[in-house]
Write a structure and sequence with these properties.
Layout: H1 3-20, H2 22-25, H3 66-102, H4 104-118, H5 122-136, H6 142-174, H7 177-184, H8 189-225, H9 237-245, H10 254-281
Helix pairs in contact: 1-3, 1-10, 3-4, 3-6, 3-8, 3-9, 3-10, 4-6, 5-6, 6-8, 7-8, 8-9, 8-10, 9-10
Length: 286
């Protein structure tokens, strides 16, 4: 592993672990609104004059600890990212296997549908799904279902990459002798796909999933920044950046800078590791 990939893997691992164990390592609970004290609002980071040792990265306009908000916000962003990638990878892999193995009119229909989905930008589809959800769900329940809407909005566009890649791999594997022998021996199509073809097409799926994790987190942050993502009561990194951006020019720069730096570090480290993983699993890209 190259030094760059190793550093990115360590950074990504530390960020993911800190988000996973946020309830244990966060100094405060950013969801406990009753614990906020307006007297502690807009405190700068500890190394700046006026900082408080209780709040390492300072506080926002409500007196909420920025570090704790980042840990919990990153947790929400990663939950959305992992769930969206899991759904899109599962659906895309299944469709790709069926299209590549069956061929014919079914392959043509599935791939043309994938082409239609690919013709729309991810953010546009996500905004459309979010808008439909807001129109269908009552106002009192939109916050409860916000995370599910985000996951669906991001996943609904990303499955096409897996489907097209797996289809190509399945076509190539299906022409090999071991698959022909499995068919001649009388194995069912489901068994051939599960035991013989699927294990051999998983490498590109893992690579795409790794890279798409960073993109999914970025998409969630974008939607939340636009105000159609997570609510203020359940902040993600995008929500924290949006809230901080509103107070950026009032001098409370740390409220937006630290969540933004965390987002950049997370997405960049995952993408760099994904690039290395792609080259490691497929030397032809090296």
């Amino acid at each position: 592993m190259s030094p760059k990939a190793l550093v990115s893997a360590i950074v990504a691992g530390l960020l993911i672990l800190s988000a996973a164990f946020a309830p244990l390592i966060a100094p405060h609970d950013p969801f406990a609104l009753g614990s906020f004290n307006l007297m502690d609002s807009e405190l700068p980071p500890i190394w700046i004059n006026g900082g408080d040792a209780r709040f390492l990265l300072g506080t926002d306009t409500q007196g909420r600890d920025v570090l704790s908000a980042i840990l919990y916000g990153m947790r929400v962003s990663l939950i959305v990212g992992f769930a969206a990638v899991a759904i899109s990878a599962s659906v895309g892999t299944l469709i790709g296997l069926i299209a590549g193995f069956r061929g014919g009119w079914l392959d043509a229909v599935l791939m043309r549908f994938a082409d239609v989905i690919l013709s729309f930008p991810t953010i546009l589809i996500a905004l459309l799904v979010s808008g439909i959800a807001r129109g269908v769900l009552p106002d009192t329940r939109q916050g409860d279902y916000a995370i599910y809407v985000l996951i669906l909005a991001i996943a609904i566009n990303e499955w096409t990459q897996y489907a097209r890649t797996v289809r190509g791999q399945t076509l190539a594997e299906g022409a090999l002798d071991y698959v022909k022998a499995a068919r001649i021996s009388g194995l069912s199509d489901t068994r051939i796909l599960h035991r013989h073809i699927l294990p051999n097409v998983l490498s590109p799926v893992i690579v795409i999933a790794t890279i798409n994790l960073g993109l999914a987190v970025l998409a969630e942050a974008t939607l939340s920044f636009l105000g159609v993502g997570m609510p203020v009561t359940q902040p993600s990194l995008g929500t924290l950046i949006r809230i901080g951006n509103e107070n950026l020019f009032s001098g409370v720069w740390w409220v937006v800078v630290f969540p933004a730096v965390t987002l950049v570090m997370l997405v960049l480290s995952v993408n760099i590791f994904g690039d290395w993983l792609r080259d490691a699993l497929n030397p032809r890209h090296g």
